[in-house]
Design goal:
There is one protein chain. The protein is built from 14 helices and 2 strands, in the order αααββααααααααααα. The chain is an all-alpha fold. It folds into 4 domains: 91 residues, 434 Repressor (Amino-terminal Domain), CATH 1.10.260; 35 residues; 66 residues, no CATH class; 35 residues, no CATH class. The protein has a two-stranded antiparallel sheet with strand order 1-2. The longest helix is centred in the C-terminal third of the chain and has 27 residues. It starts with a helix and ends in a 5-residue tail after the last helix. The relative contact order is 0.05.
Length: 250
């Protein structure tokens, strides 16, 4: 093997072992599950060979499995072949691209994806759409930038507090200089104000992204005959079904 192949082989061995460990699978359990999933006929000795790719044996260097086999293994663990061979440090090239494009960490993207897909990873399509649109509405709101700015202030304050305590204390003393209150109370009020502004922006964003029925619409759901405008009645009826209104909370 050349140097590049040796690096790839080392990465393959390490990450394949990590995948097995994360799933809590022995070699025998893994090959059994692989065969059941893909109707293959691999044996434990095949798994042992895969885990020793690049190492020396009596017959020479142990090579990579066939690419078709590598694809099955990668698919079984829900990753790309490129992740197992070290071509990307993310579990998939799509994830790597999404992380590069958005600037978000792969963990953040995965957390959103996993919530949309639900904890068991297999929601029905309609519920998945509801979950995705829940996130979309928050980011689409005109008030998201305002909330993000307040969150940025909290992040900066938290980061300075933990990485540069002296600077943080100087900043707090500067803000409290004109206060006649005890230092501990002043500190609580300042911190509370920062969080309070963020909470206020978050509340405003929620109301903007997920508007509830107006009082008139709510009354129309109880007495639709009191609303002469057919369009108002139609709008009211759209929110009158409790199952629809609370579907996202199921």
């Amino acid at each position: 093997m050349d140097d590049i192949s040796e690096v790839r082989a080392t990465c393959w061995r390490q990450r394949l072992r990590e995948c097995l460990r994360e799933r809590g699978l022995t070699q025998v359990e893994f090959v059994g599950a692989l065969n059941r999933t893909y109707l293959t006929r691999f044996h434990q000795k095949d798994v042992s060979r895969w885990l020793n790719t690049g190492n020396q044996s009596a017959n020479g260097t142990i090579g990579f499995p066939k690419y078709e086999t590598m694809m099955l293994i990668a698919d079984f663990f829900g990753v790309d072949v490129g992740y197992l061979t070290g071509e990307t440090d993310e579990t998939s090239f799509d994830l790597e691209k999404a992380s590069s494009y958005t600037g978000l960490s792969s963990n953040a993207i995965l957390a959103i994806r996993q919530w949309i897909d639900s904890p068991d990873g297999s929601p029905d399509d309609e519920l998945r759409d509801w979950r995705a649109n829940t996130i979309n509405r928050m980011f689409f709101s005109d008030l998201f930038n305002e909330l993000a700015a307040k969150m940025l202030t909290l992040y900066e304050m938290s980061t300075i507090c933990h990485t540069n305590p002296e600077r943080f204390h100087n900043l707090m003393r500067s803000l409290a200089a004109s206060s006649d209150l005890p230092d501990d109370l002043t500190f609580q009020l300042i911190i509370g104000a920062f969080y309070g502004m963020a909470n206020e922006s978050f509340s405003a964003l929620l109301k903007d992204a997920y508007p509830t029925p107006s009082e008139r619409q709510f009354e129309a759901t109880l007495n639709p005959q009191d609303i002469p405008d057919a369009q108002d009645i139609s709008d009211a009826q759209e929110v009158s079904d409790a199952d629809d209104l609370w579907y996202g909370a199921l």
